[in-house]
Task: inverse folding
């Protein structure tokens, strides 16, 4: 089976940097994804790491260490619109995604 | 229409009713999925269809019955549901190629079982 752990909630101010950690226990691990979901909205894809290292996409970066079964999502220059839930998800064979419980990020002015 | 669409957006049904949820993807993808999202629980994968064949049934009760008539359409047939089945049901699609694995989600159907 697969399980992923991430903090339930993070609060930060505009302009700050937030790091959301995700640790996973999986069999047949292919890669780690991150999704953003605003209240009442659909999850939207942010990033996917198949290999160790840092992937940067604008203000968001994602990191993976396969040896440590660990990854993180880094949100820089926080904006009010970044208030949302962020989910890590591990990919296994057969296009299976297993999601973590989600981290609710609250950005304050 | 673009992306992944789902109908209805909201559904209230009694435990003895039969209803169906519909999902349509306009992205040319070859895999589709049903997820259940309950309050305070992770998204749970229910079913995976790849090239219109069901490749995953994640221990879902038989009162949920999926159907994939073609690569663009996915249905979830519901019958004799329980109140604990009340949740947001999300459909997603993906393409099985390339180095980036991304699923595109629809807006979901908010289901309430009374």
Result:
């Amino acid at each position: 089976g697969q399980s992923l752990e991430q903090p339930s909630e993070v609060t930060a101010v505009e302009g700050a940097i937030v790091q959301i950690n995700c640790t996973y226990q999986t069999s047949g691990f292919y890669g780690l994804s991150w999704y953003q979901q605003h209240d009442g909205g659909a999850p939207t894809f942010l990033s996917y790491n198949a290999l160790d290292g840092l992937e940067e996409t604008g203000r968001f970066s994602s990191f993976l260490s396969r040896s440590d079964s660990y990854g993180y999502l880094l949100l820089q220059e926080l904006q009010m619109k970044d208030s949302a839930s962020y989910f890590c998800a591990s990919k296994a064979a057969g296009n299976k995604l297993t999601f973590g419980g989600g981290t609710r990020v609250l950005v304050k002015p | 229409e673009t992306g992944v669409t789902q109908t209805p957006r909201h559904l209230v049904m009694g435990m003895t009713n039969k209803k169906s949820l519909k999902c349509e993807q306009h992205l040319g993808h070859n895999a589709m999925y049903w997820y259940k999202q309950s309050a305070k629980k992770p998204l749970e994968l229910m079913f995976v269809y790849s090239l219109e064949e069901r490749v995953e049934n994640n221990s879902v009760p038989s009162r949920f019955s999926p159907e994939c008539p073609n690569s663009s359409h996915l249905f979830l047939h519901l019958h004799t549901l329980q109140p604990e089945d009340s949740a947001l049901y999300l459909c997603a699609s993906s393409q099985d190629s390339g180095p980036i694995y991304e699923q595109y989600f629809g807006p979901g159907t908010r289901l309430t079982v009374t």
